């Protein structure tokens, strides 16, 4: 099954679903974020999310699942659930559409992931926008990801990059 939130941004298209390798589950997450660019500049904010997949007690950044990501920003270090926990749900911080020539559309600005022990892992994204509700939980953990991305809009255009996420529950 797939879990989602209702607070995602409205732009872009859904990319492919990327799954953790068979028999593994997501226990960590990293974020691709572009820092604020300053007044009158374009801020795509959160550009991507990467799941770090584990087999049992093994923790490694070598096995990952990542759907499409925007081209701006850089990846953070992986953040891990404690005590060999699994990612089970998520929430997005999203800036609502600004609808104006002088306003910068940003869409998703940060994400939070809940671990099976109740701990939350939060990305370093910007403070713009509002946190939406948590997704329903995956009973056995998360094993895949899909993103809704707006492609690069070209020079002098407004880019939002990551707009929304879907997570795939382990079978």
Automatic annotation (TrEMBL):
InterPro entries: VOMI, VOMI_sf. One of its GO terms (cellular component) is extracellular space. SUPFAM superfamilies: Vitelline membrane outer protein-I (VMO-I). This is VMO1 protein. It comes from Alectura lathami (Australian brush turkey).
């Amino acid at each position: 099954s797939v879990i989602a939130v209702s607070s995602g941004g409205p732009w872009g298209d859904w990319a492919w679903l990327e799954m953790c390798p068979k028999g593994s589950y997501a226990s960590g997450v990293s974020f691709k974020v572009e820092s604020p660019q300053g007044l009158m500049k374009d801020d795509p904010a959160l550009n991507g999310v990467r799941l770090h997949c584990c087999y049992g007690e093994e923790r490694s950044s070598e096995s990952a699942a990542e759907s499409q990501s925007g081209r701006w920003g850089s990846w953070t270090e992986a953040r891990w659930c404690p005590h060999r926990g699994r990612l089970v749900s998520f929430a997005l911080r999203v800036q609502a559409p600004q609808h104006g020539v002088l306003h910068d559309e940003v869409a998703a600005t940060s994400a939070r992931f809940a671990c099976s022990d109740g701990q939350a892992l939060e990305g370093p994204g910007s403070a713009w926008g509002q946190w939406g509700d948590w997704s329903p939980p995956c009973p056995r953990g998360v094993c895949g990801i899909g993103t809704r991305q707006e492609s690069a809009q070209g020079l002098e255009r407004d880019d939002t990059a990551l707009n929304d996420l879907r997570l795939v529950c382990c079978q």
